[in-house]
């Protein structure tokens, strides 16, 4: 069981309060088609929708990759939550009071001590800083400063921008008075210990405060911007038990539904650019927080989209960072584009100078493909009129072309090279093939995507008869308790031959024995293994509500029983061959008789 310490009654209240279509609709664009809703699966890349959600059954299932489950397991799969975490989030959505301490046992990632209090303190301070900025005399200068710099009230509200007082100890006292342990507040980077008089002082003083949220919208850090000439210009929270830069993408919790809808994420290098871009209507914008793109960022993005647009500064450092990011993303099979700004501008400056419209059309809209960016990047600092530079450039471009999985694309860029430098296309093609084989030997080429994906594909071959019979029986067992015990009796000692099927019915017996009524969506919370949940949701999604005749039932059971005998026969046939090999003809004849007997029973 995965539902741990939450009572069944609570789980049912939450299930009644939150509709699966509403929940999944926040992540996937769903369209009604017949009785169900369909959309593009968030768990695997696809172009035509095979992901279905049933209001009636309150389950989801993907016919492409096999993912499936109910509202709880959807959040577990997509957010990496534990069951209790999912339940908490859902209870909040459905306004169901739920008192669970997320502690060491229920938290997926051993939450460090004090983490909960650190998050609470951050959330409290976010509200407090924001209030100071928009409602008080103390925050007036900061507010004017922001408005003068082009921030709208809407942006200030949306990003919960605030102001920290020009005081050494206001926050320290504020937090300690509210019972937050000093030790944790110091670890969280909000206050700093001063040895001289053994007291605490505030990290952020007289700064415009930008809260940094995690992917669920909890405040986990701040960046404070100086308004005058104070150094540093930006003062950030340090890495703390709740704030890990290499996992955090700024604005991700706001951007996610837009990333889904537009099927693309736009990545910026800092939150200031990201805020400006969102203001310009680029709502699928996220930003790294002063680190290069990491594997953790990429995994998070991959769960949400296959297409990334990189929009970094256009100076040399920005281009190098973009190039690194492009390589990583290409390796993870993203379709990558790069937006280039003119004249060493960063996106924030560009928007201020040329306006939002121009940013969307001239920068985002005119972004370069992977290969076009590579050609631009490789050309920097080279004079292609110089023979040495030109040869080096062409070789480097050929190497990149060799990495392209698509033959049409390869051809396109070879032709481009050929016409630009008046080279024979044949010669270029030949050279490119050579580069390809050399690189392949070195193992530097990306693996063909098709093969990797196939391994993940759910088996959709025709299934043997006993497999289908077991599936049908499970479908009926999910609908009726009486039927379940009837089938259990008819099966006797025989177990289902597909291990997963046997596991499912074992859990189902326990579910009914616990006194539950048939309810597949609820039953899914009894299954600890995501693979079993997939199978159950597929069976449920495929099955229609209809009475089963006794004849159908016995047919299915006979299929299962027959398969057992077939296995036995196979076993005997091996024994028979073995006996013949040993020249033990008596034994062989005896086994042959047994086989005949078994055959007659089929
Ligand atoms: Zn799928």
User: How many helices does DSSP assign?
Assistant: 27
Helix content: 40-55%
Name given to the CATH homologous superfamily of the largest domain: DNAb Helicase, Chain A
The level 1 CATH classification of the largest domain is: Mainly Alpha
Describe this structure in words.
With 602 residues, the chain is of the alpha+beta class. The chain has 5 domains: 8-93, DNA Primase, Chain A (Alpha-Beta Complex), CATH 3.90.580.10; 115-236, DNA primase, catalytic core, N-terminal domain (DNA primase DNAg catalytic core, N-terminal domain); 252-376, 3-Layer(aba) Sandwich (Dna Topoisomerase Vi A Subunit, Chain: A, domain 2), CATH 3.40.1360.10; 381-456, no CATH class; 461-602, DNAb Helicase, Chain A (Orthogonal Bundle). It has 27 helices and 16 strands. The protein has a 5-stranded antiparallel beta sheet with strand order 1-2-3-4-5. Strand 9 (207-213) and strand 10 (219-226) form a beta hairpin. The radius of gyration is 31 Å and the shape is globular. The structure holds zinc ion. Zinc ion binds at residues 41, 43-44, 51, 62, 64-65, 67.
């Amino acid at each position: 069981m995965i539902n741990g310490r939450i009572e069944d009654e609570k789980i049912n209240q939450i299930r009644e309060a939150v509709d699966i279509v509403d929940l999944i609709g926040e992540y996937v664009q769903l369209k009604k088609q017949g009785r169900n809703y369909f959309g593009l699966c968030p768990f695997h890349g696809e172009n035509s929708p095979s992901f279905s959600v049933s209001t009636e059954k309150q389950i989801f299932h993907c016919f492409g990759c096999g993912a499936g489950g109910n509202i709880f397991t959807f959040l577990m799969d997509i957010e990496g939550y534990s069951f209790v975490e999912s339940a908490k989030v859902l209870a909040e959505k459905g306004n169901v009071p739920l008192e669970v301490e997320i502690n060491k046992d229920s938290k997926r990632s051993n939450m460090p001590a004090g983490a909960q209090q650190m998050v609470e303190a951050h959330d409290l301070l976010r509200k407090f800083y924001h209030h100071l900025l928009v409602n008080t005399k103390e925050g007036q200068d900061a507010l004017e400063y922001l408005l003068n710099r082009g921030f709208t009230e809407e942006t200030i509200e949306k990003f919960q921008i605030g102001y920290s007082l020009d005081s050494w100890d206001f926050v320290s006292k504020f937090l300690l008075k509210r019972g937050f342990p000093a030790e944790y507040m110091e670890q969280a980077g909000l206050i700093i210990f001063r040895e001289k008089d053994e007291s605490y002082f505030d990290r952020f003083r007289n700064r415009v405060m930008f809260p940094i949220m995690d992917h669920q919208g909890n405040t986990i850090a701040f960046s404070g911007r100086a308004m005058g000439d104070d150094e540093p210009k930006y003062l950030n929270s340090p890495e703390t038990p709740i704030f890990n830069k290499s996992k955090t993408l700024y604005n991700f919790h706001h951007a996610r539904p837009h990333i889904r809808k537009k099927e693309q994420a736009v990545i910026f290098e800092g939150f200031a650019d990201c805020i400006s871009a969102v203001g310009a209507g680029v709502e699928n914008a996220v930003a790294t927080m002063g680190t290069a793109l990491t594997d953790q960022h990429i995994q998070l993005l991959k769960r949400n989209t296959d297409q990334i647009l990189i929009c970094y500064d256009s100076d040399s450092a920005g281009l190098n960072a973009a190039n690194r990011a492009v390589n990583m993303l290409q390796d993870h099979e993203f379709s990558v584009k790069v937006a280039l700004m003119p004249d060493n501008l960063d996106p924030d400056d560009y928007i201020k100078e040329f306006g939002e419209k121009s940013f969307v059309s001239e920068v985002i809209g005119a972004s370069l493909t992977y290969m076009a960016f590579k050609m631009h990047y490789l050309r920097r600092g080279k004079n292609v009129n110089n023979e040495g530079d030109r040869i080096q450039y062409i070789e480097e471009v050929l190497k990149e072309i060799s990495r392209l999985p698509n033959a049409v694309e390869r051809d396109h860029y070879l032709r481009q090279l050929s016409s630009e430098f008046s080279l024979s296309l044949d010669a270029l093609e030949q050279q490119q093939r050579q580069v390809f084989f050399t690189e392949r030997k070195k193992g530097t080429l990306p693996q063909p995507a098709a093969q990797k994906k196939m391994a993940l594909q759910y088996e959709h071959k025709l299934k043997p008869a006993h497999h289908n019979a077991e599936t049908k029986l499970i479908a009926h067992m999910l609908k009726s308790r009486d039927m379940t015990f009837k089938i259990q009796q008819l099966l006797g000692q025989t177990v289902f031959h597909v291990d997963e099927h046997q596991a499912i019915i074992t859990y189902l017996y326990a579910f009914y024995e616990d006194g539950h009524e048939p309810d597949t969506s609820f039953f899914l919370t009894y299954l600890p293994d995501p693979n079993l949940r997939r199978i159950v949701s597929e069976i449920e999604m495929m099955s229609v509500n209809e009475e089963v005749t006794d004849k159908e039932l016995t047919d299915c059971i006979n299929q299962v029983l027959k398969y057992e005998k077939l296995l036995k026969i196979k076993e005997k046939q091996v024994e028979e061959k073995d006996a013949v090999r040993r020249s033990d003809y008596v034994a062989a004849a005896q086994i042959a008789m047994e086989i005949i007997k078994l055959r007659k029973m089929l």
